[in-house]
Amino acid sequence: MTPLEWLHCDVARSYGLDKATWQERLQWSQTHPDFQAGAKEPFLYKSAWEALERARIGLPITHLISLDATASGIQCLALMAQDINSAFAVNLGTDVVNNPYRQVQEYMGPYDYERVKRATMTSFYESVATPLQLFGNDYDKFVAAAQTMLPGPWAMKDAISSCMDYRDQYRWTMMDGYEVVMDVTTPIECSMDIGQGHEIRWIEHRRAGVATKV
Length: 214
Known about the structure:
By secondary structure, this protein is an alpha+beta fold. It has helices spanning about 5-15, 20-30, 40-55, 70-80, 85-90, 100-110, 115-125, 130-135, 140-150, 150-160, and strands at about 170-175, 180-185, 185-195, 200-205. It has ten helices and four strands. Residues about 210-214 have low confidence and may be disordered.
């Protein structure tokens, strides 16, 4: 695309067409040249629209377009696994705008989208506690959906996890010879009664036993 076309796409994206294809964004901006009310991101939309107006008549601009990755962690895992279908699901090598969280949700059935998205995001960063808290007895159903829709990334996540060495203390040597010793700690909420019905609260990080995945 040309620089002007990228500006058109940024105008459409900030207005609210962030899930549309590049062609749909370009077409929307070109067919809506006047300033539109009701933008999803009004300040970014105004900035993009004003930049486009200046660029149309050859004036210099300093506006930077905004682009966001699609599930960047899963993208990296899909590349590592060389899983073409999962790569397409997270918008690698395709002009179609896919939503991997929506795909997992649709496979599971009538579950809240935001809940599925949060569970999927945290799962691929090795969280078990968060998806389990979100789905409870349906946790296995969620895992089956994520494994089915994103098989390569899930397998790669498990492979990386199997290499992890969970312990209660880590040691390493810096390049300058400095020896680092770091204990694994757990945040503990503490409180103290100071009389007359008042108490003070604070968080202490205490040394844990064996580190566990959260």
